[in-house]
Amino acid sequence: MHQGRTGRPRSPEADAAILAATRQALVEVGWSRLTMGDVAARAGVAKTTLYRRWPGRNELVVDAVAVLFDELELPDLGTLSADVESVVRQFGALLDRPEAKTALMAVIAEATRDEELRRRIRTTIVDRQKRLVTAGRRRAEERGELPPPPGPEAAARDTDLVFDVVAGAVVHRTLVSAEPVDADWAHRLTQLILTGLTAQRAPGAGA
Amino acid sequence: MHQGRTGRPRSPEADAAILAATRQALVEVGWSRLTMGDVAARAGVAKTTLYRRWPGRNELVVDAVAVLFDELELPDLGTLSADVESVVRQFGALLDRPEAKTALMAVIAEATRDEELRRRIRTTIVDRQKRLVTAGRRRAEERGELPPPPGPEAAARDTDLVFDVVAGAVVHRTLVSAEPVDADWAHRLTQLILTGLTAQRAPGAGA
DNA sequence: GTCTTTCGCTACGACTCGTAGCGTAACTGG
DNA sequence: CCAGTTACGCTACGAGTCGTAGCGAAAGAC
């Protein structure tokens, strides 16, 4: 269907060039002024080639941005606190890139009225990155920092909750508050998530 | 400047009609297909009237959505936990409305490339709602649930952090994970924020 | 009444959209 | 080597939206 085994094959270089051109265009002109014709010209391909591969710019932008998120990693730093802080900083640095912040919010906005686009975002971005939370939790349990989850479904709900809190806070900080995710903020967010608001001012947690 | 004291005054009813028409259009056609001509037709005014009052649809949509956020309240429910949970649920219900979720994300996306629009969002929406966090914190301190902040600047940073976490988590849950902010989730988020991840599984917090 | 500003309306060039049609290029199977 | 099939670049098209300009009429201020 998408790739019958006869005829001229689609150029993989064109794919890469189009996605790169999309990211470049997002940086320079932003979302609302990004046009398919502009992307095609930057990529050195015909406009019709874009429409043969993507239904519209929403889907194109999702694919163009998705690869950025695969750069996130979870190195084992020895403690849950350090692991969380590392991911927070990485995610903050990622969202600091203009092509990521602009595109991500715009696409999410469109997805509120487009079920299929929402699924595309979930499968290509969100679900792929939940691996960070599950891996961090597993390590923390092995170290004895966290009790084992009472059941599989409760564990899944916890994963979703933590993911929403971490990703949501970083996104909100970066895009709405428009302030940087620096080392200090990452540290304070981590402490809040681990020990909570009531214990956050405990002495000995010196800044 | 904005209102010289001579000449025909601007019609306040037109203002209200335009903002209402904008919200209605957001619900029916969404952000990307919202046009100024469409809004003007719905409001029963001329297209030129819109351009006399707003520079473009970004600014128009910000103003149209801002009033929705003023509905948020912080009733004194006796405990910090109950207060937080109440705000989480209210904010979740607000973001469940299609005109709010679509418009908010789209405008934030545009704001990543528009400094003035970013300021408009901050002054008309974000800063206005930080009152909820500061009021909740003050009450909690009066009850003895939280220690007083070590200093004014630390208090401001804490307010910003909590606001980013709460608002970000609700937004992410609603728009990215696309799952409802129900009573159970609101309760679990509140517990996470207050007591932290390490204490969240403590016995006796029975669901 | 006179002055000033807003209003509704129409019209305009410029731009983008998504599609269709054409000839050519690339690769497959007989 | 030669059809068959698909992708490609290019051009052109009607449709829709943009933001602005110009006009006469309406609504208050003085």
TrEMBL record, chains A, B:
Residues 35-54 bind DNA. Residues 136-156 are annotated as: Disordered. Keywords: DNA-binding, Transcription, Transcription regulation. InterPro entries: Homeodomain-like_sf, HTH-type_TetR-like_transc_reg, HTH_TetR, Tet_transcr_reg_TetR-rel_C_sf, TetR_C. Residues 12-72 form the HTH tetR-type domain. This is TetR/AcrR family transcriptional regulator.
